[in-house]
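Hello Y.,

Per our agreement to keep a running log of every chain we model this quarter, I'm adding this entry. I've kept the format consistent with earlier entries: sequence first, then predicted structure.
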Amino acid sequence: MISNWLQRGNLLRILGIDPGLARVGYGIIDINQRSQIMLDCGIIQTNPKDSEGKRMVEIASDMRKLIRKWDPKLASVEKFFFYRSSTTINVVQARGVLIMTLARFHIPIVEFPPMQIKLAVAGSGNADKGEVLEAVMRELNLKQPPRPDDAADALAIALTGWYQK
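Predicted structure for the entry above:
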C-alpha cells in the first residue's frame, strides 16, 4: 500500500510518537521517492499536579490538534516494553489514549519496540541515544539536534515506520 502510494508521486506523511504521561514526543516527516524531511517535532506536556484523567484528556486533545494540522497518513508508535517502574501503568494508559485517538481518525498504525527502532535507525539494537540522534540528524539532513529528547526519539520512530514499510 505505501509503495503504491509513493509510486503515484504522492508524499507520505508519517507521525512518529514516543508515548508517555508526563511528555509525549512527536515528530512529523514527509517522505517522497527521493528524500525525507522533518516538518515538525516537539512534545505534548502534561501537568503532574493534574489528575491522571485530566492529563489523558490533554494528551488526546493535543494529539487531535496535531492530526488536524498535519493530516498524517501513517502513525509509527513506540511499543512499550515492560519493566519494573512506578510509572509503567501510566505510560501504558497514555499509550492507549494515543492509539485510540489515531484510530478515531482512521490513521494506520505501526508499532515498534525500542530495540527495533535503534536497529532500524542506527544499525544496532544496542545503539545509545547519541548514535540514534546522529542517525536521525543525518537521515533528515538536520543542522541542529531536535529537542527535547522525546521529540528526537519520535523522529527516530517515524523513520522506523518508513524503513519498515
